[in-house]
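hi got a favour to ask and not much time before my train. below you get a single protein, a line of residues and a line of whole numbers that encode the local backbone shape. could you go over both lines and see whether the tokens make sense for that sequence. a few lines back from you is plenty, here it is:
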Amino acid sequence: MSVFDRSNDNGVARGERALLVVPERSGDGALRSIEARLDEAAGLAAAIGIVIVERKSLRLRQIRPASLFGKGQAEDLADIARSNDLTLLLVDTVLSPVQQKNLEEMTKCKVIDRTGLILEIFGERAATAEGRLQVELAHLDYQAGRLVRSWTHLERQRGGFGFLGGPGETQIEADRRMIRDRMARIRKELDQVKRTRGLHRERRQKAPWPLVALVGYTNAGKSTLFNLMTASSVMAEDLLFATLDPTMRQVKLPGFDKAILSDTVGFVSDLPTELVAAFRATLEEVAAADLILHVRDRSHPDSDAQAADVATVLASLGLDEPGSPPRLEVWNKIDLMGGADRDEMLGEAKRRAHVVAVSALTGEGVEALRERIGRDLQAGAELHQLRLGSGEGSKIAWLYARGEVLDQRHDGNNLHLAVKLSAENWERFQRL
């Protein structure tokens, strides 16, 4: 049960009306416009049912360590909130605990920063036990330095993660001890999950099926593409962070009787470091893939900036280093483009070596994507001459499923095979 599914001490519920503020700093990167930042922040709020009544950007001549905004700007925000009967202020940046507390006193509103908002979304969306543990650990890590909100949900088991709750206990040391103890227990549980995940990964490495991982900015269309390619029904909505828990399904590809396609959580700009750390075990699945599909929404005006954010997260996971899985860009949502823009984009996609343009909604280009994935999975394949005994049926099946068998002949109880295998699959075969 989420914090928005029930009223709490302050009567907060799904549908709360809020004022959204995006700070503008001199020297901010020009990849994203202010309007795009406002739109994305409003989308994050909508993802958990917050209604943005007013939205505005504020230029910061200098950052105030105590409150981020100047006194006059804070008073203007208080006036807007008061005149519209708003009790919630969303600030699209990371606030220090002192800045959050002072802004609440100056505006008479509850204040949530970007990190808090994203953590709330994850807290509501996590469906598995592991997902909820990861989110709670990230939330505890974030909240440990603040302790300006109630932590009674840890005792009362009310669900949710409490950012929008009212003032709670003032026994700071007791709260800190409770947080530290809870974080220690969660880390132990997640360590066990990580060990189990590692064992599963080792078994998959020995299995005759390649793993293809979908990554991309939130709402790029990963889940829609996943559903189309696997005939599944993973939640796919026009909503930020519609998918949180990773999902794996079987898919048939040219040259492969069976492959595994993995749908992962979407990335976002300024993804909280607490979440990246908490979800590292999950994201390690991407590092174990044979091929990474970077799904991009090419109809989005900030597509390039979104791609840069995804690249940053992948780099933080060490996936830009030698030996990392190869990467293929999937330019999605071409059905939303028309005229000269569409023609120019399709032409650019054809000129690039590692790009395929598709519409996951209409299916356009998806068959070509399947063929390209099959070719990429077999890239760099070398011919190997093998002799196997008639009792090694599992190895023979592995070679047929994972490689390209060009010739076979029987010699008594032995089978001679000429098979093309990628370097990765040859290494895996030798470990069988």
